[in-house]
Amino acid sequence: MVVGDFATEVDVLVVGGGPGGYVAAIRAAQLGKKVVLVDKDELGGVCLNRGCIPSKAIIHAADEAHKMKNSQHMGIEVDGVKINFADMIKWKDSVVKKLTGGVGSLLKGNKVEVIQGEVYFSGEDTVKVATESNSTTYQFNHCIIATGSRPFEIPSLKFDGKKIISSTEALSLDEIPEKMVIVGGGYIGLELGTAYSKLGTQVTVLEGMDSILPGVDPSMVRMVNRNLKKLGVEVVTGAMVQSADKSGKDVTVTAEVKGEEKTFSADKVLVAVGRKPNTDEIGLDLAGIETDDKGIIPVDRQMRTKNSKIFAIGDVAGQPMLAHKASYEGKVAAEAIAGQTSEVDYRAMPYVIFTDPELAYTGLTEKEAKEQGYDVKVSRFSFAANGRALSLDAAEGFFQIVADKETSQVLGAQIVGPEASSLISEVVLAMEMGANTEDIALTIHAHPTLPETFMEAAEGIMGNAIHMVNK
Ligand code: NAI
């Protein structure tokens, strides 16, 4: 409907078509809203196009190649594994294309109108949408901002897309780099560093803090460190990067390492030092919304901003910048717009890092639980005692549960090992259902499978695990 002479009225306007925005749009449509979704780029956002999905495809392909080269002990001798990197990238692109196409069909099937264009707020309930051919003003009853984030740029190491790159370029390189310096030993640096190392690149990770993956339980990080070393990845901690010299064939990065100046050369420098919310170029001030000093939009438990008509979800609403958090918040925002009482509860947020071995955790660590006043019990079951892990030739790591001593309720879990990324879902479900360790122990787990380690760890809390000696 056209309002006055110039504005098109819309019920719910979703800005951004990533895992936050498209999910919010579908849920709002399911709840009877007339929804318009605007994205300036392809549907699927960073996650599908330049993040989670393409990186997992490359990580998997690199892992397959690595395993082939390292399976002699299982009696598999492969003569000369050859990697056709261009074909690997093509396959990765085909995976991305299938998923982005699927998002378009889902939006269409839910009668969400999709516009390719750029959004700029022009008032408290209006936006201008600039497409290739025109500029239209929309007046919305509600708006959901889901514009995501972009790689954070270090001023002295500006991205040039060729020698100094972000994760975006790292997922679409023409050839496997000979040497790669990675600035930042966080999620991206370690996932891609591991993958490129398995493809044959000589990788150096420069991490500013005392440890890679700062904030992650040190007992988990230890195992990743050990494997990086085995792969031949050089990890330098306490390394604050200062500058880069691109004048030669290679790039030379200068960093201060524990008070000493050191240089590191490579043909590619991947900078992965965090992400910045995309909130600076959409005219938020005209909508009456302010961000904090990191560019994050403050929201309430229904994802509503200071402007009650406008909601913000995903990376623009703050850490953790994870796709599944964005989708979850999108559903809550859409339901709030439809008048439901939904609110966010992050107690059982899963964190997953696709290193080798994989890491996954949720809820509280032992230390955090104690700090919160719980009398805790911790049980750790080793994958080395699990038949399936051994038969997968992946028996490194453990499944650890932190439980409340009084009620036996699961407060959190830390997993390092095979399929940790999938196994964490069982813990998240248990926590959501308010399960205690007896519930988990009484659940029949198929044998031989990896999730048996969860059952055993739960039994360990009660002192009756079968496949380990109870303390
Ligand atoms: P990050 O926050 O995970 O890690 C950045 C690292 O860079 C930190 O360890 C930090 O101490 C270090 N650092 C910062 N400034 C530095 C400097 N000047 N010199 C050296 N080190 C420096 O950020 P990252 O890896 O860029 O990833 C961004 C976000 O993307 C993650 O936080 C995560 O939310 C998301 N992500 C999630 C994945 C998953 O769920 N599996 C995979 C990849 C990314």
Provide a descriptive summary of the structure in words.
This protein has about 475 residues and is an alpha/beta fold. It is built from 13 helices and 23 strands. The strands form five sheets. Strands 1, 2, 3, 4, 5, 6, 7 and 18 form an eight-stranded mixed sheet that branches. The chain has a five-stranded parallel sheet with strand order 9-16-10-11-12. Strands 19-20-23-22-21 form a five-stranded antiparallel sheet, with helices on both faces. β1 and β2 form a beta hairpin. The model has no long low-confidence stretch (mean pLDDT about 95). The structure holds 1,4-dihydronicotinamide adenine dinucleotide. 1,4-dihydronicotinamide adenine dinucleotide binds near residues 184, 185, 188, 275 and 352. 1,4-dihydronicotinamide adenine dinucleotide binds near residues 185, 188 and 207.
Quick structural summary:
This protein has helices at residues 21-30, 45-50, 52-69, 85-109, 167-170, 187-198, 218-231, 323-337, 366-371, 387-391, 420-432, 437-441, 452-462; strands at 2-3, 7-15, 35-39, 113-116, 118-121, 126-130, 135-145, 149-151, 164-165, 179-183, 202-206, 234-236, 239-245, 251-257, 260-266, 268-271, 275-277, 310-312, 351-353, 359-363, 376-382, 398-404, 410-416. It is of the alpha/beta class and 471 residues long. The model has no long low-confidence stretch (mean pLDDT 96).
